[in-house]
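S1.2 Input.
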Amino acid sequence: MFKTRSEKEGQSEFWVPTARLPKATPSRFYELLNETLRRMKFAEQVWEICASAYAAAAKGGRPGIDPVIYFKMLMVGFFEGIESERQIAARCADSLSLRGFLGYRLDEATPDHSSMSVIRQRLGSVCFEQVFALVLAALREDGLLKGRHLGIDSSVIEANASLRSLQERNTEEGYWAYVQRLAAEAGLKTSDPARLRRFDQKRPGRRTSNQQWHNPHDPEAKIGKTKDGATDMVYLPEHTVDLETGAIVQAQVLPGDHRDSQELSARVVEALVAVQEASGGDWQKMPETLTADKGYFGLQEIGLLQELAIKTLMSDPHRGKRRLDKLEAAQRRTLLRAQRSVQSKYGKKLLRKRGQHIERSFAHVLDAGAMRRTTLRGLGNLHKRHQIAAACYNLSQLLRRLYGVGTPKQWMASFGQFVPELTLLLMALRSLLQDKPIPLSSSQTRQARQTTGLIKSYAFSTAC
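S1.3 Output.
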């Protein structure tokens, strides 16, 4: 009778030689990532940034987990598409490749999710901002940060809070109890949740405002529309992106009811400071343009940006209804200058790049990086986590410049297509040597050229 491996009898060995244990070695992609971090002197600079937060351990307290390990585990969450810290800790504990990336042996315990929470609370938001600036400076050294043309946009992330947990601010009545009371007053006597939800959706005068309702579990989450148009508790992540290279210059999380045009100039100034610090304090290279959608349009904020010699490329949402004769002279000049910039050739070109680079950053960070649905609560925690996710996106840009690939999936996918494209390239080379050219379509010619570049990047990464 066949026995499974667990049912087989036999005494196991009392001692197992260390040489027989599997080795925790990182995969080729994580080797390249480690090499890039060593080149940036990431570990030394992170310890310098986080030294004040770890001062208690130096006074005789329990030694904390290396902050470099913490930020590396967040990198794993981005590159592997893992949303929660609990899942990140479990993945790092299970994978030999990730153990090698983190520097843990097989007999060492990797940090669990509770330790990651402690480190996140120990490190202030300034530490996360400085780590983001560290990656941004590395992009500047490799020519991936120009800083001349910036674009700004916001998206939506779902908060770790439910609409059912809403409470009325004054009476503290729960939202579900409120709906049941309205249904009883309307003559609908039922306890069926589906019928109550339909009643709530179709009842006249339905209006759920942030001034009336709040969530006690996450008071900073606001009621708003998600990406698919549903109503939920949300936050607004915002990216300021270099439109020439696609690098994220500034990343932050705003409340769900924040208007895009509110305090725009202050946020742009923060982005300018980040660009100048990454440039080594070269204040002679100021950004020239700022591109955004019509939601960011505001005459007062645009006027403040124009005083900084920044051309704004934003469509006026009220252009057809606006009365120039009702505006003051300064506002009229501001409006006409903004309209000329939008209608210019370079303005239309930059507006096209806004969709190309800014939307791509949201797709990589929120969708591929598993940040669309958050597992943390509070604006401060979300801001920290999102900044590191944006720094990881910039790291992927740097890896793509150096080695031709920016994510583990892209590394595996590139070599999944390597064999057929290499065969096509060899056929073309053989036909040229035999002076018998074979007809190739435009797509086949393009594949052969891409394969040549892939071989070069693979040879370079192998040599490294």
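S1.4 Remarks. The longest strand covers residues 231-242.
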